[in-house]
Write a structure and sequence with these properties.
about 0% strand, single chain, 9 helices, mainly alpha, about 220 residues
Length: about 220
């Protein structure tokens, strides 16, 4: 028996209005989590390069745990496991943002460490010789240069985090994949709908990539 299949572009286009409500949730979870993860990353990234071993150890432990376990497991632990410890439920949106925050924070920690260590040691020594304190040398000389070098990998992490939100449909967050699943349940047009979901993710991440390239061309990132 010969089986033929014809892609239904009309069905794909009809799904767009049903998928669009998932975009704000996707952006809120990814960028909300990244904002928190950025500060987590700075904190543990600086601990990671501390000369004191007792400060480095907790940073290394945090980084290895959250880089070494899947984000899907992390969000399931936060959503289903933590309520048993805390004695109360955790909102799915909160769980999603928290998962992005702790996961991206681990990767951003290494970005911060690499960015700070990429600055030549002589610049710090020159700053100290000019009368700046160590804190002032870091704030006014080391950090601004390091941050510019961190922007490209931070942009890559943002793209990864946006795509990671697609896993959070398992806890009922209304992001793009979840909206697609709901629509497919009544229309049975999985191929068409998931193609549109993929194109919407591509549009978001591509836009971010273009913005980063524009920054690089204008010399606002890098060296």
């Amino acid at each position: 028996m010969e089986v033929t299949f014809q892609f239904d572009w009309a069905a794909a286009l009809r799904s767009i209005p049903h998928l669009l409500p998932g975009i704000p949730w996707t952006l809120l979870i990814s960028f909300g989590g990244l904002a928190i993860g950025f500060f987590i990353g700075i904190f543990f990234g600086l601990l990671r390069i501390s000369p004191l071993r007792w400060l480095r150890f907790p940073a290394i432990f945090y980084i290895e745990v959250f880089r070494g376990t899947p984000i899907l497991v992390q969000v399931l632990f936060i959503f289903y496991g933590l309520p048993q410890i805390l004695g109360g439920p955790i909102n799915a949106l909160t769980a999603g943002i928290a998962a992005i925050a702790v996961n991206s924070g681990a990767y951003i920690s290494e970005v911060v460490r690499g960015g700070v260590q990429s600055i030549e040691r002589g610049q710090r020594e020159a700053s100290l010789s000019l009368g700046l304190s160590r804190a002032q040398a870091f704030r006014y000389v080391i950090w601004p240069q390091a941050f510019r070098r961190m922007i490209p990998p931070l942009g890559n992490q943002a793209i990864i985090s946006i795509k990671d939100t697609s896993l959070f449909s398992v806890i009922g967050v209304g992001e793009l994949v979840r909206q697609g699943q709901i629509y497919i349940a009544t229309t049975f047009t999985a191929l068409e709908v998931y193609l549109m979901v993929a194109l919407m993710y591509l549009a978001i991440t591509w836009s971010l990539s273009i913005a980063l390239r524009l920054l690089e061309r204008r010399g606002l990132v890098g060296q």
